[in-house]
Amino acid sequence: MIRGRAKKDKKTKNLINRLAPNDIAVIHHKDLDEIAAIQLRDKKVKAVVNAAPSISGRYPNRGPEILCSAGIPIIDSVGEEVFDRINDNDLLEITEENMFVNNTFLCKINILTEDEVRRK
User: Fold this and answer.
1) For the whole prediction, is pTM greater than 0.70?
2) Rg (Cα) of the chain, in Å, rounded?
3) Please, is 25 exposed, middle or buried when counting C-beta atoms within 10 Å of its C-beta (0-12, 13-18, 19+)?
4) Do 86 and 26 touch, CB atoms closer than 8 A?
5) Residue-level pLDDT at 120
6) How many CB atoms are closer than 10 A to CB 68?
7) Residues 77-111: tens digit of each pLDDT
8) Which of 9, 60, 89, 94 could be a cystine partner for 2, CB 3.0 to 4.6 Å?
9) What is the DSSP letter of 18?
10) CA 120 from centroid of its chain's CA atoms
11) Longest dimension (CA), the chain
12) Which of 12, 5, 58 is nearest to 31 (CA)?
């Protein structure tokens, strides 16, 4: 299980300066790029929750590979409704299949694996 405080922004570049080690980054970043992933990795976040697909298949992007290699789980494509239900400093708990916010079930999840990242 992963537990941490949420820090949220639709623009990853705006979120970076507010992140502390062990936060969980909550973003809305389709095709997560290399620069954003490096910044998230360097902030030592516990996990990344992305409302959008981290890999759409439109073009190759290395962001998810960078995070997976660093051991940072990506909870992918949670959608706009879930994104809207998470606020800064909410306590997030992530299991293999579910995400909870402030000890209340929020949604089923998909954690991107290294195999999925390579395949996509």
Assistant:
1) yes
2) 13
3) buried
4) yes
5) 77
6) 21
7) 999 999 999 999 999 999 999 999 999 999 999 99
8) 94
9) G
10) 17
11) 37
12) 58
Name the residue with tokens 């502390």.
Answer: 20
Question: What is the Cα–Cα distance from 19 to 21, expressed in whole angstroms?
Answer: 7
Say if CB 8 and CB 35 are below 8 A apart. no
Query: How much is the average pLDDT of 8-20?
Result: 94
Residue 67: is its pLDDT beyond 80?
A: yes
Q: Residue 3 carries which side chain, given as an amino acid letter?
A: R
Direct distance between the N- and C-terminal alpha carbons of the chain, in angstroms, rounded to an integer? 26
Q: State the burial class of residue 101 (Cβ atoms within 10 Å of its Cβ: 0-12, 13-18, 19+).
A: middle
Provide the sign of the torsion angle of the four alpha carbons 92, 84, 96, 20, taken in this order: negative
pLDDT at 101: 98
Nearest to 3 by CA among 51, 47, 69, 67: 47
The two tokens of residue 39 are: 């910044």
Quote the pLDDT of residue 58: 84
User: Where does residue 70 rank: exposed (0-12), middle (13-18), buried (19+ CB within 10 A)?
Assistant: middle
